[in-house]
């Protein structure tokens, strides 16, 4: 397969710059804004390491590390993992990926986490290089997320608007039944949005006061949002 990077000299240059420099980029945005997808694109096309607290937690639990045991205890008892543990996890992650550009997907989530994160980066002689908010209006978040469907059998995710299955209600991969998860019902999404606004608005202010926070309209869609992201990263490096 031909690498996408090779076909575009400009992006090639960007990837080259990024791979040579440690860069810490924070992506913020409501659920459904596509920040996870953008972090994946940054990983595939620009060589970033993708940090997502949930994924890294699952990885620790799977590898049975001391932190993994600690996190598992909180998760199985239904308690929130304390910020101190979240910070410990991010610290270990940074130590593991020294010298590589990292994109933080939906982290930090709260001001104490942002402060702890700043101290951790400082300890590694690093800093936050860019904070990008992918914003999306509540109505659009609801439109996008209520269109999600998941396969009961293989868990593959579809979207009635962006990624429909070939046959309505049936999984392309395994023929399983597609259903709407409790998480993706409008009422649940509205509650998640309330929590997001409550936690993230102070965080946006925190980063606006400290750094330059860049905003991208999530309505632009996957490809245009990624173009904007690259432009921001490139400007940040020059
Ligand atoms: Zn399936």
Can you tell me about this structure?
This protein is an alpha/beta fold and 238 residues long. Helix content is 52%, strand content 13%. The protein has helices at 9-20, 35-46, 53-63, 66-76, 83-96, 111-123, 138-146, 186-210, 222-237; strands spanning 24-28, 49-51, 102-105, 130-135, 148-151, 157-159, 178-179, 213-217. A 5-stranded parallel β-sheet has the order 2-3-1-4-8, sandwiched between helices. Strands 6-5-7 form a 3-stranded antiparallel β-sheet. α5 packs parallel to α6 (111-123). The longest helix has 25 residues, at 186-210. The protein is globular, with a radius of gyration of 19 Å. Residues 1-6 have low confidence and may be disordered. Bound molecules: zinc ion. Zinc ion (ZN) binds at residues 151, 153-154, 156, 171, 173-174, 176.
Overall pLDDT metric? 89
**DSSP helix fraction:** 40-55%
Structural shape: globular
* Total of DSSP H or I helical runs spanning 4+ residues: 9
Distance between the termini: 31 Å
Strand order of the largest sheet: 2-3-1-4-8
The count of DSSP E runs of length 2 or more, i.e. the number of strands, is 8
Kindly provide the radius of gyration, computed on alpha-carbon positions and rounded to a whole number of angstroms.
19 Å
**Name given to the CATH homologous superfamily of the domain at 22-136 and 200-237:** P-loop containing nucleotide triphosphate hydrolases
What is the strand content?
A: 5-15%
Instruction: Indicate the CATH architecture of the domain at 22-136 and 200-237.
Output: 3-Layer(aba) Sandwich
Largest pleated sheet: 5 strands, parallel
Instruction: List the uncertain runs.
Output: 1-6
CATH topology of the domain at 22-136 and 200-237: Rossmann fold
- Alpha-beta classification: alpha/beta
CATH class of the domain at 22-136 and 200-237: Alpha Beta
């Amino acid at each position: 397969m031909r690498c996408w990077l090779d076909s575009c000299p400009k992006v090639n240059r960007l990837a080259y710059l990024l791979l040579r420099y440690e860069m810490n980029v924070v992506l913020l945005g409501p659920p459904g804004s596509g920040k996870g997808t953008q972090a994946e694109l940054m990983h595939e096309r620009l060589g970033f390491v993708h940090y997502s607290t949930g994924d890294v937690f699952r990885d620790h639990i799977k590898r049975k590390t001391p932190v993994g045991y600690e996190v598992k205890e909180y998760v199985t008892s239904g308690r929130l993992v304390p910020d101190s543990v979240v910070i410990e996890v991010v610290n270990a992650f940074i130590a593991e990926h020294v010298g590589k550009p990292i994109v933080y997907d939906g982290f930090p989530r709260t001001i104490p986490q942002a402060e702890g994160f700043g101290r951790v980066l400082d300890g590694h002689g690093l800093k936050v290089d860019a904070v990008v908010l992918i914003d999306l209006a509540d109505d659009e978040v609801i439109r996008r997320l209520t269109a999600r469907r998941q396969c009961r059998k293989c868990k593959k995710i579809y979207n009635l608007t962006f990624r429909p299955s070939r046959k309505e209600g049936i999984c392309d991969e395994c023929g399983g039944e597609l259903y709407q998860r409790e998480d993706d019902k409008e009422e649940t999404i509205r509650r998640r949005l309330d929590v997001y606004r409550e936690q993230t608005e102070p965080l946006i202010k925190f980063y606006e006061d400290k750094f330059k926070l860049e905003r991208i309209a999530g309505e632009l869609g996957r490809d245009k949002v990624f173009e904007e992201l690259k432009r921001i990263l490139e400007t940040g490096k020059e």
